[in-house]
Amino acid sequence: MGSLRCCLLLALALLGLHPAAAGKCDLQGLWRNELGSNMTLLALDMDGTFSGSYHTAVAATDKQILVSPLQGALQPPGTKGQQPTFGFTVQWQFADSTTVFVGQCFVDRRGKEVLETAWLLREGVPSRRDVWKATRVGTSVFTRIK
To answer: Which of 32, 87, 121, 127 is the most buried (most CB within 10 A)?
Structure first.
């Protein structure tokens, strides 16, 4: 009886780790990236658009950092079962710059959601001669807080 129970528990554990057990990603909620920036994404509307707010933990300014609004859109997942892609724009309330993020949501075998993103930040510059230094590029990984 003990070995049967052990086999049953092992089978249940293995089924729980199967890739098909990974859930569907839900963008709505509170997220934090590796630098400590927090992002709140509100519910998607019927068209797949969403809004929210972004509170960055890092900035190249001496001004007070303010929570800034964001607007985005979700592309429905493809037919091969992959998780959705998305994009959003942050309109910074404390700087003369805008950042766009594009990414994809992933759910691991334990159900942990991760947003893998790339971003472009465009800073306003006084003239075309300064365009060379106006754009920054990077990546961020967000994990769900709640």
So the answer is: 121
Across 37-57, average pLDDT: 94
CB 68 within 8 A of CB 94: yes
Query: How far, in Å, CA of 71 to CA of 100, rounded?
Result: 10
- Position 62 confidence tier, pLDDT thresholds 50, 70, 90: confident
Count other Cβ atoms within 10 Å, centred on residue 30: 13
Distance CA 50, CA 143 (A): 18
Q: What pLDDT score was predicted for residue 78? A: 67
3 state DSSP class of 38: strand
Residue with tokens 């049953």: 8
CA distance 64 to 73: 29
- Collapsing DSSP to helix, strand or coil, 7 comes out as helix
Structure tokens at 104: 């994809």
Residues 79, 85, 86: CA angle, nearest 5 degrees: 145
CA–CA dist 62, 122 (Å, integer): 18
